[in-house]
Amino acid sequence: MSTATASGPIVALKNVTKTYQQGAIEVHALRGLDLVIEPGEFTAISGPSGSGKSTALNLIGGLDTPTGGSVQVEGHDLGALGRKALSDLRRDRIGFVFQAYNLVPVLTAAENAEMVLALQGVDDKTRRAKVTALLDQVGLQGLADRRPDELSGGQQQRVAIARAIAAQPAIVLADEPTANVDSATAEMLLDLMERLNQDLGVTFLFSTHDPRVMARAKRLINLVDGKVDSDERRDG
Questions:
Q1: Phi-psi label, residue 216: left if phi above 0, alpha if psi -120 to 50, beta otherwise
Q2: 35 near 12, Cβ under 8 Å?
Q3: Where does residue 45 rank: exposed (0-12), middle (13-18), buried (19+ CB within 10 A)?
Q4: Which tens digits make up the pLDDT trace of 92-111?
Q5: Structural domains of the chain, ranges and CATH numbers in brackets
Q6: Taking residues 123-137, what's their average pLDDT?
Q7: Pairing between strand 76-77 and 68-73?
Q8: How many Å apart are CA 73 and CA 89, to the nearest integer?
């Protein structure tokens, strides 16, 4: 699986600020955030509510724009990209896993998982073969033709993970991926993502308040008031 360009980090945030206006009040979600994510990392961003962790993921994913500073993905400054180039980068190089799964209700598990490949123009036969193998890999053998309302929460999140990695992105951004499942399912999902990281080299960046995710992370970044409060590596 391709995870990044040969040179340089996958993600680089430089002095990033983000300010929201809530009525007459300015909310400073990020205050000069510097962050670098290298290929193959399994990193979690933690912090109290309002610390800026989801905001950081939204900026890296190109879903929002910073007030100041620069956000780079594989050396591309997202702020300098046109709309189509940014859309293509999101489609091809960034996978997303959300706490609410974000599956299309009328599509089957296989159809949901192959959405990015379809957008890339991959032919039907190749797409279906790849997605069938992926669904088997994430533990959904025999469930390809079920719609989301016929799947458990944990199974829906597995579909979302398959969709996120189908196009071999540089990085998967996982925003509170265990928030809507029970403890046993959360551990199974983390086992799956750890295996994808270790066996296939998939780079994961989590936003989380879940102690189970923090315990599994090989790098734990804690944000407080929009800044890095601590950055702990556990590679050994």
A1: alpha
A2: yes
A3: buried
A4: 999 999 888 889 999 999 99
A5: 39-63+82-233 (3.40.50.300)
A6: 92
A7: antiparallel
A8: 9
